[in-house]
Amino acid sequence: LNGRRSRTEPPTWNYPIPREPVTSPSRWSPTPLVNEAPEPIASTVESETIETKRERLPQLDVIGQLHASYIVCGAEDGMYVIDQHAAQERIKYELFYEQLGNPDKEYQLLLLPLTLEFTQEEALAIEEVTPLLKEAGLELEPFGGNTFLVREIPTWYPQHDLEGTVRDLIEMAIRDRSIDIAKYREDASILMACKRSIKANHPLNHEMMRQLLHDLNQTTSPYTCPHGRPILVKWSTYELEKLFKRVM
């Protein structure tokens, strides 16, 4: 094509890419993931307690991606394989959990209101759980009969399946109306984190993988997803050497 080589467009991804690559000397190859210096700890006892309890990943060096689903990393003590979907679930879960507790920050006015039809029984139940829905940033406007309108939503609601997310939240509120807000926030956060996280068979470049692991390391529990499943598995150096019969 006029002497020009065609380029394949990079895969789209719903995750921010750092403007500048993270680099640091490393004994592993290729690209290292850097554990940034910890943020200054406030002089209060509470801050010290939180920092002490926070789990941290070891320093991981990204080697590559396996089956467009797993991130393979090297470390001083062996090899790690990270489930990319579970990793972003943990990141998104903590983001949504915090934002569900502060629903009045940023809202987006819908160009066309979302119209939702319900049965009479569901409509009556919705009226009972209206305060609970408002806590999650969802306000339903009666529109006659068993119809409700949603005119605005928090900006962090998933856009690819907005109606499905709203209906899921309403169903959850009706089903568990007797639970407290904290439990509701947790369940809703898990639901939305799962829907909005990257899936398996999704190619990532090195910058994306490094940024994902960097953000995972900032979470309060980087080893398990919100459902309790492991995010990573490890083979120690000894286990690897034993597999190759280098040690007994």
TrEMBL record:
SUPFAM superfamilies: DNA mismatch repair protein MutL
Family matches, as InterPro entries: MutL/Mlh/Pms-like, MutL_C, MutL_C_dimsub, MutL_C_regsub, MutL_C_sf
UniProt region (Disordered), positions on chain: 1-36
GO CC annotation terms, alphabetical: mismatch repair complex
Domain MutL C-terminal dimerisation: 62-204
A Pfam family it matches: MutL_C
GO molecular function: ATP binding; ATP hydrolysis activity; ATP-dependent DNA damage sensor activity
GO biological process, one term: mismatch repair
PANTHER family the UniProt entry points to: DNA MISMATCH REPAIR PROTEIN MLH, PMS, MUTL, DNA MISMATCH REPAIR PROTEIN MLH1
Protein name in UniProt: DNA mismatch repair protein
Organism: Exiguobacterium sp. EPVM
